[in-house]
Amino acid sequence: MDLSTTYLGLKLKNPLVPSSSPLSRSLDNLRRMEDAGAAAVVLYSLFEEQITLESELLDQYLTHGTESYAEALSYFPNAPEYQTGPDSYLEHVRRAKEALDIPIIGSLNGVSTGGWINYARKIEQAGADALELNVYYLPTDVNLGSAAVEQIYLDILHDVKTAVSIPVAIKLNPYFSAMANMARRLSDAGADGLVLFNRFYQPDLDPVNLEIVPHLVLSNSHELRLPLRWIAILYGRISADLALTTGVHTVQDVVKGVMAGASATMMASELLQRGVGRLGEILADLRRWLEEYEYDSLAQMKGSLSQINCAEPAAFERANYMRVLSSFSVREVYN
Amino acid sequence: MTKRFMTLDGNEACALVAHKINEVIAIYPITPSSAMGEWADQYSAEGKTNIWGAVPLVIEMQSEGGAAGSVHGALQAGALTTTFTASQGLLLMIPNMYKIAGELTSTVFHIAARSLATQALSIFGDHSDVMAARSTGFAQLFANSVQEITDFALIATAATLEARVPFLHIFDGFRSSHEVNKAELLDDDVLRAMISDELVRAHRARALTPDKPVIRGTAQNPDVYFQGRESANPFYLATPGIVQKTMDRFAALTGRQYHLFDYVGAPDAERVIVIMGSGAEATHETVDYLTARGEKVGLLKVRLYRPFAVEAFLQALPASVRAIAVLDRTKEPGAAGEPLYQDVVTAVAEGLANQTASFATMPKIIGGRYGLSSKEFTPAMIKAVFDELGKEKPKNHFTVGINDDVTFTSLAYDESFIIEPDDVVRAVFYGLGADGTVGANKNSIKIIGEDTDNYAQAYFVYDSKKSGSVTVSHLRFGPRPIRSTYQVNSANFIGVHQFNFVEKFDVLRLAAPGATLLLNSPYGPDEVWDYLPRSMQQTIIDKKLKFYVLDGYEVARKTGMGRRINTIMQTGFFALSGVLPPDEAIAAIKHTIEKTYGNRGERVVQMNNAAVDAARDHLFEVKVPAEATSTFERSLTLPAHAPEFVKSVTARIIEGLGDLLPVSAMPVDGTYPVGTTKWEKRNITTEIPVWDPDVCIQCGKCALVCPHGVIREKIYDAALLHNAPPTFKSTEARFKEFKGMQFTLQIAPEDCTGCSLCVEVCPAKNKQQPKFKAINMAPQLPLRESERQNWEFFLSLPNVDRTQLPLGQVKFNQLLEPLFEFSGACAGCGETPYLKLLSQLFGDRALIANATGCSSIYGGNLPTTPWTVNEEGRGPAWSNSLFEDNAEFGLGMRVALDQRLETATHLLRQMDDLIDEELCEAILYADQVTEADIRAQRGRVAELKHRLRELIARGDLDTAVVRTLENLLSVADVFVKKNVWIVGGDGWAYDIGYGGLDHVLASGRNVNVLVLDTEVYSNTGGQMSKATPRGAVAKFAAAGKPIAKKDLGMLAVSYGNVYVARVAFGANDAQTVRAFLEAEAYDGPSLIIAYSHCIAHGYDLKFGLEQQKAAVESAYWPLFRYNPDLLAEGKNPFQLDSRAPKLPLDQYMYREGRFRMLTQSHPERAAKLLELAQADVQTRWQRYEELAAKVPGGNGKGD
Asked: Looking at CA atoms only, how far is residue A60 from chain B in angstroms?
């Protein structure tokens, strides 16, 4: 069974790609992913903010309390070298490339223009086959309009595309007022792929201690529908490849994603919960599914239920909402 | 060969050479020599090799005694071995030094000479330590400057290999060890040429080896010991010649010629000063100045002091000499004269007797003391000595540099005699430790020394506070080598890096006429004038100063530098001093930034560079008005009710004018009044906590955790509020025991350090705006005046009666008045809350033996002490003996008290019928368990004393009876329970004092030991101790400590009769309080090991309490109490007070720099050590659980 697909110009042997997660910090995990059948892997993100913070923290450790008191002019030995910059990440990319045969996709979260460009170049030089821009940006500034926010994405993409020659995907959040238009503009600006969608961790409130608490909830299959809809809408309308991330847990999720038009279906929560080996199970399931429903290849189903190919294009639009509403009582929906 | 210059301090200069020509280095940290060991360790960690291609092995020992023992052993096994030490450290080495010298073993000990602890400890420089070692048989070679340190480190080593006599290579602590100066480095070729391989092989050939066994270190009897002692004479006789020959060889290689004695001055000098150490440099400079003006004066620098080469000494003196002043930087009380003086007198007398002197008549010889504890030694003082020599009857056994108005030894000197040459730039900078001024100045002087042809010098003065400390930097640069081994006393550049200094200090005292003043000012050039005190304005006008402002904090804020204004003000200095063209200066600063901060990541470099660029645009000249217009003055006014001693002595030291105090002002035996920090009012924080009575639940936690004792609580009658200041806050007391009364939580606004631990611990939140708690930080300045009044009023309210309080609960015991307040410890210190608690619970009856370390510094470093008294005048009696002996010192206090009680009991029994049998019985058999018991006993003893006085006054009693009554009166106070607390850090308890501690615990005596465990030598800058945990980075453990922390608690538990507790107040304050109360109640030795978060852990200490919680929750620091009294009740004495680990260890460790740094420097090793540390935690937890589960009496779990 031919499960192959093409994503970012890379020939993938199947659509299963572990998305950026802490799992990829370990070379052993990466090897296990490949062994389980992953077609490519997106590494955890290099956070410029983290690098900056580490550098500032180290400076604080080495500076705090020094040159103040005659008996203790410093409190720590001064090592000649510290890994404060991107070096450990880049080394990881290099080692991953050496250890694995599948494509390695680097992931970058920048802050400054210089940071995006500089680190993108370095990730390319370290041997990554492609780069995913993890634009984890929450526009909380009440003075910042949507046009300006959209321009930030376009500028970052432009800067990075100018700096590197490997394919570049951009991971988006779903909160654009004109999602489709934004996707097209990014595609036109040279994005080789769009990764839909980034999942923001939603903080929780602790009503007893009156605190805001970080709350990490892993995704589930229900969350698939948001990216599924937008991939279905965008498929065939923009030139960038589409990758689906968030909510991929089962073979049905993979199949739905491909049918909506995804070139790659990415997963992290499922692997975090059930181990890297789960990828192998889903891959086997996928093969069985295609055989059971008598598909010749994965390519045959790609985009089959996208908006342009499906029988009910309007189902992806407003009517869909209305119908869902009508199937519940108003009370149930709003409770 | 190209000359290689470097601008470096004496310690680094010495370590550079010593590391190259040794194989084993065994050390122990002690100021001011610690840095040499640290440098050596760093070189070895970096893989730097000695001249034979091997990386020297650097080992940190548990004490200097231990270091000396290892050195001795390494030498006996044939390694080229050295050590670095000072002061008490050298004294601890003396026993081994006799052995090493007696066995004619080649070695050099490098000494940053320092004062000895006498009437007081002092970390500063003089020759007291090396003079105490002069009979050990070690040769003594004195280096006077950074260049000479470089050179003599080599010459001493080369000479010892040939002479076989071991050497002390000595230079002055701080003045030379910490002075930064430009020196020519020694190439490896020079080192190789000087260190003879043949002699190294001979040294090795003398090593002990089973391949050719000998016995060394025998015991000898009266028949031969004496002869054996004399057998080494030829070696000592040959040593001076060998040293001179070595100096000559060195001169041939480097061009720098030294002699055993170097004479400087007029060839026909009549008046000559003989001196050794850094003072010789200032004398050299002064002699040059005076001879250029025709004075017939000279200087003889003593290089090789031991063996004292009489002939060479005599030959070096000019034949014209008529009068000699011998200057000793030490004091030998009761001697006929100080050591060098005696040697000179003897040498001259012998020379005349033997007719080997170049002069025929006996010159006048006088001896004098100078420069003890780094006291300044200036040309003015040197001139005074020469002037004295010119007198008919010069004063002998004089002092210079002080005003001795008691025994009138001191020479008067003219302070205005200043010889700073015009072509030398002299700059003085006033900064805070925290603002980075010193670091920037170190970089500046390196730039000037290494990027220009100038010679350069820098010296830094620090106060003795660990928070809000003030630094003064003294920089000089000019066209000639700088010999001015004293602080700048006429500056043509003054940098004031903190605006509020203009109100506190006379920052222009050292300004030369026409000098440049650069002030870090939040006020611009047009408005700053109005914010200066009037006298400062007048000085600016009178001295015609060029005045500039730079808003350093604005630039720092804009560029993300926070409170660090170092590179910003540095840029201002370079722009104004003109030492380099502007662009070159900027490039040089940025180059240094890259060198200094490059390894910390791009971000830090970028930030500093941005600050440099921005600084130039914020530098403005101030147009100085013609007249002073301010209506305010600098203020350091003490209230009228301050004690006389505080007004006349303490206040002057606080003002920085301690040098002016005469001898008569000083207590004769080192005894000082307590309770003096309260007069300092340091105002070092910009924010203080503010209490919200509506939100407060009155739990006492903020008061408990406050490291500085600035948060106080009182409960009082509402009627007392009638004359309260308008902003004084009060609310109904939420205590059922105090119904209807008022409660106030008050902050001492001027004593707070702004650490905000109180806010972090506060459990009560404002329900409308949970960002506010019951205590919140707010700017200090707008609150200062009103809160000062509130504080005064608060103090006037009565304290709660302590006998009414259940002291086991924090809510209640925090109503007790602390007798430890406002210390100079680091803001957020993790040690001081324990001491404060101790003082609250038992301070009125405690004797405290305090080991040297942080707690002895913030506890007892002049000018002030935080230990204070209650309204009855009772409080902790505190003393620091040494570092190594503290447990024994405390035990001595205990046995003295016990013995006094025996005596008093005996006397009371003798006189009970005369006094009142019932009263005497009540005194002898009183329970003294509760506060009420103790108060009752105090009443009985007061009554006893009253009756004794009456009886003594009666006049009809037999003399022998009266004498007995008088004796009883003198000891009667001992009937009230006293307890002894032995306090110190982990360096003391785990390392240097462990043997003594072990013995004291085994004595069974009733002492309480409190170990403030910061897991590192905090006071000397973070060296590893045996309390340092596995995986932590510390000095001498740069790659993370590989071995787990010693379980001191379990070692003590193994005795069975020692009360042991491990506590962490930030994790469980109730358990801490319980442990303190139980330890005091236990009639035997007690040991409390107290987790103390510390600046050396590498994180913002406001998170100290969170870290304590994490330490306990991860079982990194399990809490337990082992109470032998429980055995008698049939219970398990071991009670585990914390729960099974619920936090992975990394979540505790990696929030602290000391652990996290290793993940950045050695990531793989960090991972491995974390794994092992996690296993340590689990294994120990299992062991503790098993102990807690043991019979008798249930599972032993604490409640």
From this structure: 8
Question: What residues in A contact B600, CB-CB < 8 Å?
Answer: 55, 58-59, 62, 82, 84
Task: Say yes or no: A199 and A318 in one domain.
Answer: no
Range of the domain at A125: 5-304
CATH at A257 = 3.20.20.70
- pLDDT (tens digit, 9 = 90+) per residue, B1015-1032? 999 999 999 999 999 999
Cα(A265)–Cα(A196) distance, rounded to whole angstroms? 10
Q: For chain A, which residues lie within 8 Å of any Cβ of chain B, measuring from their own Cβ?
A: 51-52, 54-85, 88, 209-211
Is pLDDT above 70 for A322?
Answer: no
B967 assigned to active site: no
Alpha-carbon distance of B44 to B28, in angstroms, equals: 16
**Number of helices (H), then strands (E), in chain A:** 13, 12
Which whole number is the average pLDDT over B1080-1101?
97
Selected catalytic residue, list B64, B179, B888, B1080: B64
**Is B597 touching A (CB cutoff 8 A)?**
yes
What CA–CA distance (Å, rounded) separates A42 from A24? 8
| Test the B interface: residue of A67, A119, A208 with most B CBs within 10 Å | A67
Please judge whether B1153 and A61 are an interchain contact, meaning their C-beta atoms are less than 8 angstroms apart: yes
Inter-chain CB proximity A69 and B464 less than 8 Å? yes
Asked if A184 and A311 sit in the same domain, the reply is: no
Task: Count Cβ atoms within 10 A of the Cβ of residue B1198 and give its class: 0-12 exposed, 13-18 middle, 19 or more buried.
Answer: middle
Cβ of B829 under 8 Å from any chain A Cβ? no
Residues 517-576 of B with CB under 8 A from A: 564
Q: According to the model, what pLDDT value does residue B713 have?
A: 98
In angstroms, the separation between the Cα of residue B18 and the nearest Cα of chain A is 19
Report CB contact under 8 Å: B433, A69. Answer: yes
Q: What is the pLDDT of residues B624-655, one digit of tens each?
A: 999 999 999 987 678 889 999 999 999 999 98
Same domain for A319 and A184, yes or no, is no
A217 & A323 share domain:
no
Question: Does the distance separating the beta carbons of A64 and B31 come in below 8 Å?
Answer: no
Q: Are residues A117 and A189 in the same domain?
A: yes
Residue-wise pLDDT for B601-623, tens only, equals 888 999 999 999 999 999 999 99
Partner-chain contact B599 A80, CB within 8 Å: yes
Please give the pLDDT value at position B1192: 62
Let me know whether A240 and A329 are in one domain: no
pTM of the full structure: 0.94
In whole angstroms, give the CA distance from residue B994 to residue B986.
9
Backbone angles phi, psi at B563, to 5 degrees: -90, 0
Rounded Cα distance, B856 and B769, in Å: 43
pLDDT tens-digit map of B425-477: 999 999 999 899 999 999 999 999 999 999 999 999 999 899 999 999 999 99
Contact B904, B971 (CB under 8 A): yes
Interface of B with A in 948-1007 (CB under 8 A): none
ipTM: 0.93
- The reply to whether residue A66 touches residue B1035, judged by beta carbons under 8 angstroms, is no
**How far is Cα B809 from Cα B44, in angstroms, rounded to an integer?**
52
**Domains of chain B from N-terminus onward:** 5-197+223-253 (3.40.50.970), 261-411 (3.40.50.920), 425-622 (3.40.920.10), 674-816 (3.30.70.20), 820-904+978-1199 (3.40.50.970), 905-975 (no CATH)
Same domain, A198 and A325: no
The 3 state secondary structure assigned to B963-1007 is HHHHHHHHHHHHHCCCEEEEEEEHHHHHHHCHHHHHHHHHCCCCE
Together in a domain, A268 and A334: no
Task: Return the pLDDT at A214.
Answer: 82
- Give the number of domains in chain A: 2
